[in-house]
């Protein structure tokens, strides 16, 4: 449950990599570890999110909406067709 007045972005990492998380160009302190769900509490709004494989080439980028009191979940998978990309599935809860 997000803190009052905030929303929470969850990086649900289904890859075999640790992922660096950038929000609006700023590296977040917490790494999204492989096969874990990592939460980031944010103010409601639209954010540019970039996910980058630690020590590798894969990446994912997207604009996302953070809604007050809601979870914005990004499921991340390795893209089987392009080794430099992650495939992301975004939904709200």
SSE arrangement:
Blueprint: E1 7-13, E2 19-23, E3 26-27, E4 37-42, E5 45-53, E6 59-66, E7 71-78, E8 86-92
Parallel strand pairs: 1-7
Antiparallel strand pairs: 1-4, 2-3, 2-5, 5-6, 7-8
What report would you give on this structure?
- It is a single chain.
- The protein has strands spanning 7-13, 19-23, 26-27, 37-42, 45-53, 59-66, 71-78, 86-92.
- By secondary structure, it is mostly beta strands.
- The strands form 2 sheets. It has a 4-stranded mixed β-sheet, with no helix packed on it. Strands 3-2-5-6 form a 4-stranded antiparallel β-sheet, with no helix packed on it.
- The termini are close together.
């Amino acid at each position: 449950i997000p803190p009052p007045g905030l929303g929470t972005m969850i990086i649900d990492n289904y890859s075999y990599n640790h992922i660096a998380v950038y929000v609006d160009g700023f590296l977040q302190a917490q790494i999204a570890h492989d096969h874990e769900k990592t939460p980031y509490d944010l103010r409601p709004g639209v954010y540019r999110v970039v996910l980058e494989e630690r020590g590798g080439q894969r990446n994912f980028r997207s604009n996302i909406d953070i809604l007050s009191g809601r979870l914005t979940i990004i499921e991340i998978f390795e893209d089987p067709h392009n080794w430099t990309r992650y495939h992301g599935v975004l939904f709200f809860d």
